[in-house]
Write a structure and sequence with these properties.
single chain, 3 helices, 3% strand, flat
Length: 121
């Protein structure tokens, strides 16, 4: 198959610089928030147990079956015992669905391969 060559007009259009931008008149900016801006605390709300120590912390070890990883509970200076709420080590429903789908596909491939071997050639 011969190589495709662009026509002279297509080549000129590709090599010429783009047309200059046309300036556009904009109006006066409009304020989206009337009055003082809210603080982050007003937007997010109070932290659990009323302080920075009651954060939800996952158990150490990370996910994906790899050992280690992750970090220990979050501690703050001046606090002897952090308020730690550990999340249960139960996989999410999407993880279960992916695992079951994978097992199903593996089983289907094994059965399909066995059925193909039994067919006469």
């Amino acid at each position: 198959m011969p190589p495709l060559t662009p026509s002279a007009s297509e080549l000129a259009r590709l090599l010429l610089p783009p047309a200059p931008l046309v300036p556009v008149e904009t109006g006066v900016p409009v304020a989206l928030v009337q009055g003082p801006l809210p603080t982050l605390g007003e937007i997010v709300g109070p932290l659990p147990s009323g302080g920075p120590g009651g954060l939800l912390v996952a158990p150490p070890g990370g996910g994906g079956g790899s050992p280690g990883g992750g970090s220990g509970p979050i501690t703050y200076p001046g606090r002897d015992t952090p308020d730690v709420i550990t999340a249960p080590a139960v996989p999410e429903p999407g993880t279960w669905a992916t695992m079951l789908l994978g097992f199903g596909l593996i089983g289907w491939r094994i059965r399909h391969a066995a059925a193909r071997r039994l067919l006469p050639a």
